[in-house]
Specification:
- The protein has 252 residues and is of the alpha+beta class.
- A 4-stranded antiparallel sheet has the order 7-8-9-10, with no helix packed on it.
- α3 packs antiparallel against α4.
Length: 252
């Protein structure tokens, strides 16, 4: 037996539909050879007793199977969104019941990000996710910040043999052959060596515990500075970051 209102299958002898609350008057689709209607069912909450319901959004009204009260379907769906999700849709904008407008929070988050204040931007993006865990805009915003931080160059030098850059957790040396990446956690025995007995020029030297393990020597005019910067970075201390907003705009 199936409900003639929403198509829900019912037990024999049922007087009310347990899905939409419609009264007796069921229709046996199997006996008549008719097809069972396919209806999109959405969660709702009874406006009288607060019971959880599954309703057909195309219906105008129905009867709650728990308290027998008639309710407006559209209002019951709104009641569910407010009480369970904490959200209310008004004029096309998602507003939290605490009065927070998701669109406004996203605007503020993006503005902080473009101004280079990443911690504040992440704070606002997370506020959006607290209201709407499926927000693509907030998820993308946090991802762009992470990409910006990952690609940021903290210190660099255009040496005679190639470009030496310090990024988050890694040292990159790019020459005519291409880029070579050295993870900071695998750099050991960092030191400064003279290029020759008769020269005051210095080179940066370290052992890289990669595959294969090797000695690396990079000629640089700022060997002393690089030594300090790399040692600090290995302990999580990096030079101050500037112009972060530009990196956020360029990341995807």
């Amino acid at each position: 037996m199936f409900c003639s209102s929403c198509g829900q299958k019912l037990p024999e002898g049922a007087k009310f539909c347990f899905n939409c609350g419609a009264q007796a008057g069921v229709f046996d689709f199997a006996q008549e050879g008719a097809s069972i209607p396919t209806t999109k069912i959405v969660p709702a909450r009874c406006t009288s007793c607060g019971a959880s319901l599954n309703v057909d959004p195309n219906q105008k009204s129905a009867i709650c199977p728990y308290c027998r009260s008639e309710y407006i379907v559209e209002q019951a769906i709104k009641e569910f969104n407010i009480n369970v999700n904490g959200n209310l849709i008004a004029n096309g904008a998602t507003i939290n019941i605490n009065g927070k407008n998701v669109d406004n929070l996203l605007d503020r988050a993006n503005q902080f990000a473009k101004n280079g204040d990443f911690p504040k931007a992440i704070e606002y993006f997370n506020e959006v996710l607290d209201i709407d865990a499926n927000s693509k805009e907030a998820t993308l915003g946090i991802q762009k910040i992470q990409n910006a931080l990952n690609s940021y160059v903290y210190f660099k030098e255009d040496t005679k043999n190639g470009l030496l850059e310090l990024k988050k957790g890694r040292l990159i040396f790019t020459n005519a052959v291409g880029p070579t990446l050295y993870e900071l956690s695998r750099i050991f025995e960092l030191g400064i060596v003279s290029r020759s007995l008769f020269s005051n020029e210095k080179s940066l030297q370290f052992t890289y515990d990669g595959i294969p393990k090797k000695k690396v020597v990079i000629d640089t005019s700022m060997a002393n500075k690089w030594f300090v910067v790399i040692e600090d970075a290995k302990m999580g201390k990096y030079p101050e970051m500037v112009n972060l907003g530009m990196f956020f705009d360029n990341c995807s």
